[in-house]
């Protein structure tokens, strides 16, 4: 299913009251009168579309949790899931709790700042007219910045807007897989496996979709983000 199909399906399930599906009215699937089309070519490149996609993916995960409730109560009584956003930096896949995620946006130019005190601070990016601090997760997490990994399909680098203590910050990532509901038992097993001991700001390592995924400790990571900005 394409991202466009996913959005249309989500709206058909009742999200249209909360989300303005402008792509169906004035965008690529409508009369094409949207003034932003000249810059973005297609609605999927627009931050409005990306924001709607993120909200719908999160809702879809929650809807799947509701559907599980239809199963026999005995089998489902102890099943609790946590919603994680999966993304890639170089060759490494990571997951972070969606509760600290504000939005996923297309890449924006990063403007460097003179006399920067933090190696992790890349500069600032313009997010819908507001300048937002831009940080390198590669630097914060101590990752190898030279690696690169993809399935061979065309991927689109993105920026994650994260809710830090003193306001939002943006972090560039190489690829976003989406939002997934993970069984709490799987996360508990990953956090007690001991494989994360040497990994910075990491709660555990789990296998997901054939990948080794680092589950980030958002509290420690957001604390590091705050320190990088002071």
TrEMBL record:
It comes from the Bacteria. This is Chemotaxis protein CheW. It comes from Pseudomonas imrae. The lineage of its organism: Bacteria, Pseudomonadati, Pseudomonadota, Gammaproteobacteria, Pseudomonadales.
């Amino acid at each position: 299913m394409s991202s466009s199909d996913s959005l249309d399906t989500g709206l058909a399930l009742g999200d249209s009251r909360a989300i303005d599906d402008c792509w169906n009215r004035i965008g690529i699937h409508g009369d094409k009168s949207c003034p932003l089309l000249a810059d973005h070519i297609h609605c999927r490149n627009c931050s409005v579309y990306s924001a709607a996609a993120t909200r719908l993916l999160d809702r879809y995960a929650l809807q799947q949790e509701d559907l599980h409730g239809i199963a026999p109560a005995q089998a489902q009584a102890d099943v609790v899931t946590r919603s994680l956003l999966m993304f890639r930096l170089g060759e490494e896949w990571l997951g972070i709790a969606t509760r600290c995620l504000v939005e996923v946006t297309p890449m924006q130019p990063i403007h460097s700042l003179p006399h920067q005190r933090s190696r992790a601070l890349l500069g600032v990016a313009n997010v819908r007219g507001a300048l937002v601090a831009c940080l390198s997760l590669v630097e914060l997490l101590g990752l190898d910045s030279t690696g690169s990994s993809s399935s061979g399909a065309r991927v689109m680098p993105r920026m994650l807007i994260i809710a830090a203590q003193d306001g939002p910050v943006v972090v560039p990532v190489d690829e976003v897989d989406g939002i997934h509901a993970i069984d709490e038992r799987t996360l508990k097993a990953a956090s007690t496996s001991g494989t994360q001991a040497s990994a910075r700001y990491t709660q555990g390592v789990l296998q997901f979709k054939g990948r080794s995924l680092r589950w980030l400790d958002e509290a420690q990571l957001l604390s590091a983000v705050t320190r990088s900005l002071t």
